[in-house]
Amino acid sequence: MVRHACKHVRYYSRLFKSLHIEKDDIRTVEDMSKIPVLTKDQIRNSPGEFYAHPSPFEFSRTITSSGSTGIPPPILQGEEDLAYDAAEHMREFRAWRVDLRKRWALIRTHHGLPRLESHVQKLFYRNCCLSSVYEDAERQIAKLRSVKPHFLYIVPSYLSYLIEVGVRKDLELFPLETIFANGDQLARRASEMVVNAFGVEPNNMYGTAETGAIAWQCPEERRHHLNVDNCLVEFLDENDEPVGVGEKGMIVVTCFHNPLMPLIRFSVGDYGVPSDDVCACGRGLPIMNDLLGEIRDVLLFGGRAVNPFLLERRETLPSGIAWTRFIQTEPDELTVQFMRTEFSRSGCEEQLLSRIQYVVGSDVHVALAEVDMVPKDPYERLVRVRACSGQ
Questions:
Q1: Which of 98, 220, 303, 382 is 20 to 30 A from residue 204's alpha carbon, by CA?
Q2: Half-sphere exposure of 256 (CA within 13 A, CB side)
Q3: DSSP symbol at 241
C-alpha cells in the first residue's frame, strides 16, 4: 500500500520526495516511523490530494464521518475495501455466535448501503434493515417494533437517546438477542440503561468511517482484538513515539485495503492501551486493553431528550465553523464551544446560534464560547456532548 500511495497519490509522492524517502525504504513496521502522522485536518483541508490519480480501481461510493471532530472530509471507498470491511464484521458476528440468516437492523450516521458487488457483501447485508441516527426517537422505535430485528448494530449514544425517550414516554421497546455498538462509547449510566431496557450488555465494535473496522470486543474476556489483517495499529505518545505495553497512546492506523484513498499513519483521534497478553479465546489477534473513544451524553431539557447527532450534523454547522462541543451547564442552559476555520466569514456565529436553538428549542438559553484550539487533554476532548451533572 505504501508503494501504491507513493506512485498514485499526490500527497505521498510529494511527502516522500521532500523527506528524501524512497518507497523501498519502508520494509518493516519500524520503518513506518519515517512517515509523519497524518491528521484529519490535513485531509479536510485538501481531500483531493489523498485520492489515487489515476486510479486503476473501480469507484464504489463516497461517505463522510459524523463530523464529530469538525467538518468531515469525503472518504472514497472501493469494492475491495467494502468487501473486506463486511468480512471483518462477519468474523466479529461469528465470534458472538450471531446467525446472519436472521433479520437485523443497522443504524448509522451515513445513508444508504454500498453497491453490493461482492458475494461477501451480499451475504452480510442480505437480511439487514437500514436506518439513520438522525431519525426521531418515537418514529425509530415504532419502525424497529415493526421490523422485529433479532440483533442491532447501532451508535451507542443514539441507543441511549432511544432508551431515554422510550422510558420517559412509556413506549414499548423491542426485544433483542444481541446489541453491537460502534461509533462512540457508552458512559457508565448509559450502559446500565441498555442492560435494564434489553437485558443484554452491548458488545463494542471499534472503527471509523476513514479506516473501517479496527478492533472488536471478544466475548471471552471482553477486551478488544485488533484487526491486524486489515490495518496496522500503532499507539503513540505526544511526540509520536510508541508507548509501552499498558500505557495510554494515541491510536494511529495504516489501512491495507483502500487503494482509492490510502491512509498511512492516520491519527483517528482516539486513545487506547495496548497489551501483550494472549486472549483466553485462543485467537492470535493482538489485544487492546482499554479504548478511550468519544462520549456523547443525551441532553435533557424539561424532561425532553435531544438527539445528540442533530447538534453535530453537517447541516447544523455553518460554513466557517471547524469544531464544536456542547456542555449543559444548567437544566435549561447550554454552552456551545466552537472553533473557527481559517476561512471563517462574518455571520457564522449567528447562523450557528440559530441552528442550535432550533434543535434544542426556544425555552433553552444557548451561549456561544469561542476557543482557539481543541482541548489537548484527551479526557476533555473526547466528551463531545456533556449533560448537566446529576441529570
A1: 303
A2: 13
A3: P
Measured between alpha carbons, how far is 362 from 299 in angstroms, rounded to an integer?
Answer: 15
DSSP 25: G
Our CA angle for 92, 233, 30, nearest 5°, is 145
Which superfamily does 1-293 belong to? ANL, N-terminal domain (3.40.50.12780)
| CA pair distance 147, 263, nearest whole angstrom | 37
Q: Cβ of 232: how many Cβ atoms within 10 Å?
A: 16
Contact 366, 356 (CB under 8 A): yes
End-to-end Cα distance, the chain: 48
pTM: 0.88
Exposed e or buried b per residue across 309-330, where buried means at least 16 C-beta atoms within 10 angstroms of its C-beta: bbbbbeebbbebbbbbbbbbee
- Domain spans of the chain, in order of start: 1-293, 297-386
Q: Is 226 in contact with 214 (CB distance < 8 Å)? A: yes
pLDDT of residue 64: 61
Give per-residue pLDDT as tens, 314-331: 777 788 888 889 999 999
Closest to 204 measured CA to CA, from 292, 126, 273, 139: 292
- For 297-386, CATH number? 3.30.300.30
141, containing H or E segment = helix 137-147
Does residue 280 sit in helix, strand or coil?
A: coil
Res 313: pLDDT:
80
Cell of 210: 476513514
Order the strands of the 249-255 sheet from edge to edge.
128-132, 104-108, 151-154, 178-181, 203-208, 212-217, 224-226, 287-292, 266-275, 249-255, 231-236
Between 8 and 388, the more confident residue is 8
Enter the C-alpha cell of residue 263.
491512509
Name the nearest CA neighbour of 110 among 152, 68, 139: 68
The answer to whether 64 and 74 are in contact (CB under 8 A) is yes
